[in-house]
Design goal:
With 421 residues, the protein is α/β, with parallel strands linked by helices. It is built from 12 helices and 21 strands.
């Protein structure tokens, strides 16, 4: 469920008509629903209410400070993968003891930042990283909590670019070598081994891969405890998918996901951490766009819109689908017309959807790309020197611009021309 519904013939975000936002802010623009964010976060909390837990929002899915502040005020932890994301989480008021630092390429300055600012744990991805963190922490006179990310070699049955739990992927250490790596971790100064970390991929629509991975984590927990390690915390990652197509079966619910966790690891007495992102914020956002031209082609018609692949990269990068809907509700029984919905960037890859079945739309009409709250604005760029897309947060009957669209002057002002040119 989300809070983007037709009311009085116009698509609303909660109680705000999207046409009003388009008129006041301009297009393209991302629009987020606070009510949807709160509801989805609450569902994950409910799914784990049977045990001690922390729901860590995956900052990589949407890193706007207002979104992070909203999540943090609800009690969410943060899963960060860079120094910049760590800085954003802290700027949003999230304390260090609720921040988990993941990622395969943590640098010494990033590690130092997190140690000095406070950290719940580092999720260690490799032995070289583990040794580097040990040397840095020991040199600072610190002892930092760590979990080691294991790669369980489980096929998540998702897109190859967002699968992270197979042996061929760059993430984590092979689970077959976990015993020896944990033994080294326990011997290193500056490290306090507290748990195990696993994450097998994103946009999973089947619970079986989760179950397979978590059973392996449970077996590893018992083996490590037999070796004398105090494993008190399991970070089970994120990855639960969302329905990008409204006409398809929905992915499993958070409550069903929570039951898989209970069945696989619930008898271990560990605190559970999960790192959902897409499932919290994906359907909490839309990308609002305006039709520039309707173009007649040889064998198709094109809707040329003012949003482009630099604003929403997922279709070009992953071949991803986003339902496209008109902002003005079509009449009951109104016919549809197939359009190729494309952006203005000078690449054929700047195509959002081919043969999209939409009602007749004229130039100036508004459309919304649904399920765009995750991996939308965070992946946006200024390709073709197009200003970054702004973001808006709606709560009830009011809204606020939470990232403005930069002017051309602001965009150009970040460059500098050497004196010798």
């Amino acid at each position: 469920m989300d809070h983007f519904l037709y009311k009085d013939g116009h698509l609303h975000a909660e109680d705000v008509p999207l046409s009003r936002i388009a008129a006041e802010v301009g297009t393209p623009v991302y629009v987020y629903s606070a009510a949807t964010l709160k509801r989805h976060f609450g569902l994950f909390r409910q799914a784990l209410d049977w045990t001690d837990h922390l729901v860590c929002f995956a900052v990589k899915s949407n890193s706007n400070l207002a979104v992070l502040k909203l999540m943090g005020d609800l009690g969410a932890g943060m899963d960060v993968v860079s120094g910049g994301e760590y800085a954003r989480a802290k700027a949003a008021g999230v304390p260090g003891e609720r921040i988990v630092f993941s990622g395969v390429g943590k640098t010494a300055p990033e590690m130092r930042m997190a140690i000095e600012g406070g950290i719940r744990q580092f999720n260690i991805e490799s032995e070289p990283e583990m040794r580097a963190l040990s040397a840095l922490a020991a040199g600072m006179g610190a002892s930092v909590p760590v979990a080691i990310r294991v790669n369980p070699d489980v096929d998540a049955k998702t897109h190859e670019k967002i699968a992270t739990g197979k042996s061929e992927n760059k993430f984590g250490i092979p689970i077959s070598r976990a015993i020896e790596v944990y033994a080294e971790a326990a011997s290193l100064p500056g490290l306090q081994v507290v748990g195990i970390d696993v994450h097998i991929g994103s946009q999973l629509t089947d619970l079986k891969p989760f179950r397979a991975a978590y059973v392996k984590v449970a077996d590893l927990t018992r083996a490590l405890r037999a070796e004398g390690h105090q494993i008190t915390r399991l970070d089970l990652g994120g990855g639960l998918g969302i329905p990008y197509r409204r006409d398809n079966n929905s992915p499993p619910l958070p409550i069903e996901y929570g039951e898989v966790i209970r069945e696989a690891v619930g008898d271990l007495g560990c605190e559970i951490e999960i790192e959902p992102g897409r499932n919290i914020v994906g359907n909490a956002g839309v990308l609002l766009s305006q039709v520039i031209y309707v173009k007649k082609g040889e064998d198709r018609d094109f809707l040329i819109v003012d949003a482009a692949m630099n604003d929403l990269l997922r279709p070009a990068m992953y071949g991803a689908h986003h339902d496209i809907v008109p902002v003005v509700e079509p009449d009951l029984g109104a016919g549809v017309h197939p359009y190729d919905v494309v952006g203005p960037i000078c690449e054929s890859g700047d195509t959002f959807q081919k043969a999209a079945e939409l009602p007749e739309i004229a130039a100036g009409g508004l459309i919304a790309f649904r399920s765009a709250g995750a991996y939308g604005a965070v992946m946006a760029s200024e390709y073709n020197s197009r200003p970054l897309v702004p973001e808006v947060l709606v709560q009830g009957d009011h809204f606020a611009v939470i990232r403005p669209r930069p002017t051309y002057e602001e965009m150009l002002g970040r460059d500098s021309i050497p004196e010798w040119l």
